[in-house]
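User: Hi! Is it possible to get a structure for several chains at once, not just one? Here's what I have:
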Amino acid sequence: MEFIKEEHTLFNLTAEDLMISSEKVAHVQMNNPLEHALLILVKSGYSAVPVLDSKYRFKGIIGKGMILNEILGIERFETENLSTTIVEDAMRTDIPCLEKSADFFTCLKALIDHSFVCIVDQEHYFDGIVTRRAVLKHMNQYFYVNKDIFKLN
Ligand code: 4BW
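Assistant: Yes, the chains can be modeled jointly so their relative placement is included. Here is the combined structure:
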């Protein structure tokens, strides 16, 4: 088998190498009103962001679609509920998360069904996110550097 350039192998990468650290990640808290979450989502430009508790532990994600769904009445959007309903009542909690030590392929697998995956420690404190963009960027670089083996132009 031909030689794969050592410094561009994907096998040694971990979630820690790929992640956007917590201080750069837009997030909301469970007890924030939906109005606040919508403001963060619209201003940041992201369609979904992590939800944390008051101790910065990861609890789920909230997105624009979830908020719209929560305020959808029979005939209209009940926008008055944006100030009375909190994030906890609209967020999704069935979200997989990984630890910093997770390898590249574990991240890749998680990102098949999710646009980002949250990275937490053993007590579920939030460390950051790994996005599809970060994983695709490394794969692109890997294929480019090793293009001779893959017979790419
Ligand atoms: O504001 C943006 N800046 C940049 N540079 N790219 C953006 C921005 N908003 C969207 N994008 C691009 C990214 O390529 O559109 C993709 C889909 O965005 P999304 O999902 O539907 O809002 C982005 O792809 P990605 O970088 O692989 O990110 C995947 C998802 O991770 C995003 C968003 O839900 C979340 N995310 C990314 N960076 C984040 C974040 N959430 C909170 N804070 C961050 N810093």
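The domain at 10-150 is CATH 3.10.580.10 (CBS-domain). The radius of gyration is 19 Å.

User: Great, thank you!
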